[in-house]
Amino acid sequence: MLSLTINDRTIEAEEGETILSAARRAGIEIPTLCAVKGLPPTGACRICVVEVAGFGGLVPSCSYPVAAGMKVQTHSPRALEARKTIVELLLADHPDDCLYCARNNACELQTLAQGLGIRQRRYRGTSLPIRLDVSSPGIIRDQAKCVLCGRCVAVCTQVVVNDVLEFGNRGAKAKIVCDADRPMGLSTCVQCGACVEACPVGALVFKEQMNCMPDGRMQTTRVTCPYCGVGCQIDMHHKDGKWIYSTATAANAEKQPNQGLLCVKGRFGLDFQNHEERLTTPMIRKDGALVAASWDEALDFAATRLGEVKAAHGPDAIGFLSSAKVTNEENFAMMRLARGVIGTNNLDHCARL
């Protein structure tokens, strides 16, 4: 361990740790657009520049290692002016349709501009004639809003390891490309959506987001994905009782089974809950017709009928089928019900069928 000073506070840090990491552990926030937690730094955006005593220029805190006795100022006038200029340059050719953007009020570039007091454009850039890419089943790409932070590239190549996204071209024509600059829907993209969650702006959004702009009625509920027994944690974004889109739970992601990732089913396959024919209450058969019932009534009915069948034909007249879409504990409970309560070994699992 070594000691350094950040904003006149003595901080303990590990050798080789970056200034950004040490500052965040100490509760000192340094803004950045390109850093991805747990991945090697890229130093692409330069928003995180800080002033270090004895250095002639500003240094990127996300990639610069700490040193014993180092004195750092994260929000000195010089650092703030540099950040403001960088953000203004990013805004120079950035679309100004914030009110209609799906990331409005959740855009990191917008938040930076507000925090730095930017109210008007000092610079004017030349926007490239880029068409909206809507070829993907679930993702919309708007290259005009891309700030080339590289976060989508980092998660695609180093986390998902699918190697679809990469930087293409150079200079003012630089952009993020899929495979050999193909539309996303025609590329080898697996639609995991990790790039969308990594994007700090509206360059990558879920199609469902475009149909429902964020407002005070949007709510988020944490659930466990129903598609398999892994137990992935999902944040369900819903409005007026309708599911809109899903994201991986970010809180304590490193301790979650899915560690902040989702598969294509967990990401896009939950729209069944909005179907008009979805059952929302238990059903029991009376006089040959299915009718709605309470849970107590339905459970009593099932227990009575199982008891009648067992009494009339024996326990082996009853069979149980479990599922890979539930937890191990629920499968164990099904086994105990079949063998311990009913007394039969007629128990199977959908993974075998």
Contiguous uncertain segments of 5+ residues: none
The number of helical segments is 9
Helix content: 10-25%
Distance between the termini: 56 Å
Radius of gyration: 27 Å
The CATH architecture name of the largest domain reads 2-Layer Sandwich
Mean pLDDT: 90
Strand portion, in percent?
15-25%
Q: Write the element-wise H/E pattern from the N-terminal end onward.
A: EEHEEEHHEHEEHEHEEEHEEHEHE
The outline comes out as: elongated
> Describe the biggest sheet?
5 strands, mixed
Strand order of the largest sheet: 2-1-5-3-4
User: What is the class of the largest domain in the CATH system?
Assistant: Alpha Beta
> How many beta-strand runs?
16
Q: Provide the domain count.
A: 5
Structural class: alpha+beta
Question: What do we call the CATH topology of the largest domain?
Answer: Alpha-Beta Plaits
